[in-house]
Amino acid sequence: MGIDTGRTWKRFRWLGLLVILLALILSRSELSSLEPTTRTETDLVQWEVATFEADITIPLGHPCMGGGVADAKEIVDPLWAKGFVLRPAGVRQKDDERLASVPAGKSAYFPLVVVALDWCQCNNDSYDRWREALAEAAGTTRERVFLATVHQHDAPICDLRAQQLLDQAGKKGWHCDPQFHETAVQRTVRALRTALDKPKRITHIGLGQAKVERIASNRRVVSADGRISWSRGSRSGDIFNAPEGEIDPWLKTISFWDGDTPILAWSCYAVHPMSYYGQGQVSADFPGLARARRQRDDPRVFQMYFTGCAGDVTAGKYNTGTPENRPQLAERLYQAMLAAWKNTQRFPLQSADFRSAPLYLPPRDEGKFTVAQMRRILADEKATRWQRISAAMGLSWRERVAAGRPIDVPCLDFNRGQALFLVLPAEAFVGYQLAAQKLRPDSFVMAVGFGDGAPGYIPTDRCWKEGYNDDYCWVAPMTDAILLDVLRQVLNVPESDASKVPPPLLAEKTAWNARIPLIRREVIYQELSPTFQWFHPRAAAIPPTGDSPHPTVILTLQKHLVASDYYSGLYVMRSEDLGRTWQGPKPVPELDWIRQPDGTVLAMCDVTPGYHPLTGKVIALGCSVYYDSQGRQLQDRPRCSQVAYAVYDPKTDRWARWQILELPPLEKFQFLARNGCGQWVVENDGSLLVPIYFAPRANMPFAVTVLRCRFDGQKLIYREHGDELFLNEVRGLSEPSLIQCGGMYYLTIRHDRRGYVTRSKDGLHWEPLRPWTFDDGSELGSYNTQQHWVCHEGELYLIYTRRGAQNDHIPRHRAPLWIARVDRDKLQVLRSTEQVVLPERGAMMGNFGAAPVTSREWWITVGENLLPQRTANRTKPDPRGADGSVLLGRLTWPKSER
To answer: Is residue 763, in this structure, part of any structural domain at all?
Structure first.
């Protein structure tokens, strides 16, 4: 399933003529851009490249393949780090004045680093250490370092955290040598720094490809009795006389030129790069031999090689693992590299655009892949060396997932889509490489595999459904939708073009897509102030009217002032284009503080807005509080905190002033009876179901109930309330959040020690409370903060924070924000569906909102609450990244049949 060569090259020829005409019109050097549709801060840019290489051969005795095969006994040929730095000519260092005035990584002036390592894998902290060191040396950011391993097996896997865990178990050096790891990094850094002193001008980009004969075959084979297996390894030979299966037969080469002089070429082909291995004979194997031969062909041209997405592609059909096969495979690969070079066509280098998207892959969490089982295996002296190393690598991955650290997927876009170069993680299956090509069928797409190696194999959904179950895989099944969404982002493909994705990736994932949301993370607004933080951002969508295709989104938010729970009047932001652009935040005079005769202030806080379909109004529900002159909340008067609401009329664009909901004169409601931060429900007849918590006096535990109210377009009127839920522990129950989903009502409730959940058929009468747990019976770990709901097509989800995410430094573990599907029968969170909505960046995220915006999209919104110990230094971002942003986690579901 390669590119239609004739059709693609005809397009390239026409595009080349158009680019040449454009160059003649401009009569000077080509333009560079950061985004495909905008010009950069420069008018005219010339490009230069600096190539570098360093010997990163492991010493004798070092583990090969992370300790999974024999340690190094012999150096057959060296292992290399080979790379280049691409930058606009004249940019010499990161503090260049053109870089000083722009945010890190946002300028086209920041260099780009591309590097291939003759190692098996770099995982987690190892991968980031390489990127950070190379970025610092090149004067750029780590996101702009395109790092991948070639994946030879008689070479190291380095997972620094896994080795730390093995050290703690008394197995020093079993997996890798951190000291040598740093030595290799520093060798490469020195080579890069030296190369920067001798850059070469580039004016053109070359694109070439050729079909590879008799190397690649898919692991998947079907036996005579119809059984499917993935038994065709790198040296298995031609078992069952099976066909090659799903492969990408094309080797692709991208090159840089100075006029007619070639400077650099990097090639990519999707196949596991092993002929024979496992006996301690360190080698770059047949890709290294082919690359070295191409280098000898023309020493002027710096040669690099990458392995494509080859998790399920090996040389097995054409290789039996004998030493004689290595030069044969090298010859075939060399011939393809030579043919791709001869087929190369050159085009003026007009632009080099950078994009990146975070990839959050859920962890595998069953059987031996649970954290508890991996810890047991790691500590088991009877387990094999590889079993214990695998457990350590799995735990390293789980720690990373729990901390909410995504994998960066970078893409380099040449000439606004003419050629695209991207790096996917680990052992992604070839189906994802083919999908990337289908998403941009008119582009030259080079998809590299074996970026961050931490996830292990990343199978397509079809493979999981057919029974794939290899142990070297730490990601949950069925991740097509997540990978395809990231591909769409970095390849700059509109979501509406999803039909370009080939089957089976599209055809066989529909049922799963209807249940697992895709997540995109954005910044709505950012401001650091020593006197306040933006807090409680929550959205309400007003259906479109007239010619507008999008709803109007109203986002209410408040300033959290210097005292605890001390809030300003209400502010509003507004978007007419689904959050692409925003107006505000603007104060609403009608919703400001209300000064009292005794010098105190009546304010409203913890606001959740929502749309009321029958009246066409927006209702903002919250609670009233009294403040003294120092911002302290006052509880010295009856009804000191009650349900408050305000009404917005979209037709007049006016807010009515705050009103207090009149409740029955019952003792239970006379001290405190409030809706604070909770989701509420509009019933079909226009009635509101409003969850509240209440107490008759101070120092008494809160109880929870749900009010049914009528709304006439201006006034909210109490009609009745339901069961009163009470737990006589510490402060009781508070901040309930309500949703209707699949014909039932669900209530999640805050408690100081753990969250609680219950359900109802009518929204008023409730089953006994249950503590929130995962489906394995363990506690969810969400406590002393809110949880909120999401419902899509009858599937129920919970948004929450919890312990156990390497977040002990966050008070009450209020970050990151998680989402997981809820088993509606058992009222348990399905651990295997857990994803990070918004990662932890050194700030609390406990006061967030969740709201539907379209039939396929929900928004999770939160303001970053910088940690209390940083109150005096709120004008500087937290080292982990928190910078006073109002964040949006955009949840979307593809269209389904329902």
So the answer is: no
